[in-house]
């Protein structure tokens, strides 16, 4: 089988059936951070394979191998004749390769800019109307009776709680919630989410993209839960989760999926075997292998000269 | 010297404390001992450019007032924090979504009747 066929199969697998299978699995809950790395690896691998597939189809009519073919293609493109001697299949291959790059980069840039704008607008107002709380000077208080706690990502992330939250929670529960938010800030979870959010607008028809955003968001919550569980007893955080989720001030339109996420997190926090180092190690090995697969196929394409 | 952002906050505190009333630059500067009148005017102009303050001219005197109450700004931030669907809400990392009362009862029971006690790791 040719390298092009392999690359096509890899791309279809990564963006097709693997995502839904991973989303149904139980083990990611025992190693949430490693599972996020695996989701990232699937995306990188699929994108590399799709671009590699497009390029190998493009250079196939030149009969000079991947490396020399790509070099010749670059020279042609720089001379202003990118499609010369490519034929129909070559032109389609080049279109695929460039389209994948453009869609991914433009999506990332627009989502990045919109998110940055929304965050800086929120931050400007927040810094004017909030006050540090007595218990922790790095935490900002919003004087509002409704219940909310969140992390505003950025260069200097802000951790925010509402007056309603201070009213609702005991000291130990509040400490656990703040530790959870510090986990988000420390792990730069805002940046981790960005690529998944950016694909969601344009590529939602892909099974991988459809699952990745919700799964990674849930896994990052669990990763922050694990961070908090190191600083306070997991039971305090579980208690705070139940109190805040049932406080009734959050909007009623919340999705069913997020409802399960809260239950899952509470059950997980109460479980004695919450995390597993072995599972994390296996997930990281699988991530490395996932990224290496399209590389090895590309390498075959480069070394084979026809 | 206090950072400009901090000074903006103190000026807004003064303007918001008298929401609905108009203040002159002198009124504001009078409540900020240690700051030059011109510095306060600069800050007021900056806040006006940001849309937080507006001013009216009455002959040589400028009267400043806030465009919206402090509470309405807090409400808009809470809206970001609680809104699950919008992209503005997506810019934040929220703590928890909602559960139904029935589900909350099940979870509370799970919390009240723990299995074997589990000590926190690495404590």
Bin the strand percentage of chain A. under 5%
CA-based gyration radius of chain B? 23 Å
Profile the largest sheet of chain B. Answer: 3 strands, antiparallel
Question: What is the CA–CA distance across the termini of chain B?
Answer: 42 Å
What is the residue-averaged pLDDT of chain A?
A: 88
Structural class of chain A: mainly alpha
**Assembly state:** heterodimer
Count of domains of chain B = 2
Strand order of the largest sheet of chain B: 1-3-2
CATH homologous superfamily name of the largest domain in chain B?
Winged helix-like DNA-binding domain superfamily/Winged helix DNA-binding domain
Biggest interface reads: A-B, 62 and 48 residues
Give the SSE order of chain A as H and E letters: HHHHHEEEEHHHHHHH
Beta fraction of the residues of chain B?
5-15%
Count of discrete alpha- or pi-helical segments spanning 4 or more residues of chain A: 12
- The residue fraction in helices of chain B comes out at 40-55%
Structural features:
heterodimer, A: 306 residues, mainly alpha, B: 123 residues, alpha+beta, Arc Repressor Mutant, subunit A, 2 domains, three-stranded antiparallel beta sheet
What does this structure look like?
- The complex is a heterodimer of chains A (306) and B (123).
- Chain A has one domain (3-303).
- In chain A, 72% of the residues lie in helices and 5% in strands.
- In chain A, strands 1-2-4-3 form a 4-stranded mixed beta sheet, sandwiched between helices.
- Chain A has helices at residues 3-15, 18-24, 32-59, 65-78, 87-129, 163-168, 171-186, 189-202, 207-231, 234-245, 256-270, 277-303, and strands at 131-132, 139-142, 149-152, 158-162.
- Chain A is mostly helical.
- Chain B has 123 residues and is α+β, with helices and mostly antiparallel strands.
- Chain B has 2 domains: 4-66, Winged helix-like DNA-binding domain superfamily/Winged helix DNA-binding domain (Arc Repressor Mutant, subunit A), CATH 1.10.10; 70-112, no CATH class.
- Chain B has a 3-stranded antiparallel beta sheet.
- In chain B, β2 (53-58) and β3 (61-66) form a beta hairpin.
- In chain B, α1 (4-17) crosses α3.
- The two termini of chain B are 42 Å apart.
- Chains A and B meet through α5, β3, α7, α8 and α9 of A and α1, α4, α5, β4 and α6 of B.
């Amino acid at each position: 089988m040719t390298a092009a066929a392999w690359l096509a199969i890899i791309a279809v697998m990564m963006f097709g059936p693997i995502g839904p299978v991973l989303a149904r699995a139980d083990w990611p809950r025992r190693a949430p951070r490693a599972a996020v790395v695996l989701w990232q690896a699937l995306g990188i691998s699929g994108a590399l394979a799709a671009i590699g597939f497009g390029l190998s189809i493009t250079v196939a009519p030149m009969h000079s191998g991947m490396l020399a073919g790509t070099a010749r293609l670059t020279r042609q493109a720089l001379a202003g004749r990118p499609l010369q001697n490519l034929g129909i299949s070559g032109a389609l291959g080049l279109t695929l390769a460039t389209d994948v790059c453009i869609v991914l980069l433009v999506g990332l840039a627009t989502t990045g800019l919109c998110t940055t704008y929304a965050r800086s607008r929120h931050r400007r107002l927040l810094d004017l109307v909030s006050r540090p709380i007595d218990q922790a000077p790095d935490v900002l208080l919003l004087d509002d009776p409704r219940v909310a706690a969140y992390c505003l990502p950025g260069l200097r992330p802000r951790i925010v709680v509402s007056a309603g939250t201070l009213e609702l929670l005991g000291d130990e529960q509040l400490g656990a919630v703040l530790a959870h938010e510090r986990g988000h800030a420390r792990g730069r979870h805002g940046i981790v989410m960005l690529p998944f959010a950016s694909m969601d607008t344009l590529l939602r028809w892909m099974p991988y993209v459809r699952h990745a955003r919700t799964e990674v968001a849930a896994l990052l919550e669990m990763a922050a839960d694990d961070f908090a569980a190191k600083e306070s007893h997991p039971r305090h955080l579980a208690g705070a989760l139940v109190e805040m989720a049932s406080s009734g001030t959050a909007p009623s339109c919340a999705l069913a999926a997020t409802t399960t996420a809260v239950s899952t997190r509470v059950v997980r926090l109460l479980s004695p075997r919450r995390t597993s180092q072995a599972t994390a190690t296996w997930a990281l090995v699988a991530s490395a292998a996932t990224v290496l697969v399209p590389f090895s196929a590309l390498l075959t394409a480069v070394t084979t000269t026809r | 010297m206090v950072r400009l952002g901090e000074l903006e906050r103190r000026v807004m505190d003064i303007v918001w404390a008298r929401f609905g009333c108009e203040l002159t630059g002198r009124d504001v500067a009078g409540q900020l001992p240690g700051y030059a009148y011109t510095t306060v005017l600069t800050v007021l102009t900056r806040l006006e450019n940001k849309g937080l303050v507006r001013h009216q001219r009455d002959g040589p005197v400028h009267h400043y007032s806030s465009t919206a109450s402090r509470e309405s700004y807090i409400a808009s931030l809470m809206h970001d924090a609680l809104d699950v669907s919008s992209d503005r809400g997506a810019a934040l990392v929220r703590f928890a979504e909602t559960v139904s009362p029935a589900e909350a009862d099940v979870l509370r029971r799970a919390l009240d009747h723990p299995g074997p006690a589990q000590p926190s790791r690495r404590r």
